[in-house]
């Protein structure tokens, strides 16, 4: 599948998996890790999105393992499970990364190219639903995304999203209905503050 599809499917997989790990589905760092994990298996292809960014490494990986070789095999899946069970690494880091990685393998399984799960042995496993880059690919991605969104425990809150992005800090007075809390805090106070106790020391002007 194309990099964009893997990104969307990696995020979708995390939306569904996060509540199972007791983690927030819409945490930006976790989504970022899931997306990174969803692109990682194609490190064995120098022309893939991730391959272009780590060019010498992807070239070496491609030469040694071949595209959709070890990084798309049961060895890689075992590595993912080992990573998840590792006590040295935080689940907050490994869970989204592994979920994203496995979403990539599941997506590649849906293409005619399939997966060489038993790598280095020959034999391809595939459930050919759509060809890479075909018009059906966005359709499959859209269906999976809508299913994942329906299964996400958290719902997106526009106000929280704007606050998190810092929009309300800049535009609270212009967007009072969306940024009520910030708008109230930023409203300039009038000159008259009412009567207030100022303590025992009276102003010099009054003393005189
Ligand atoms: Zn792949």
UniProtKB/TrEMBL annotation:
One of its GO terms (molecular function) is hydrolase activity. Keywords: Hydrolase. The keyword Hydrolase applies. The keyword Hydrolase applies. InterPro entries: YdjM-like. This is Metal-dependent hydrolase. It comes from Roseomonas marmotae.
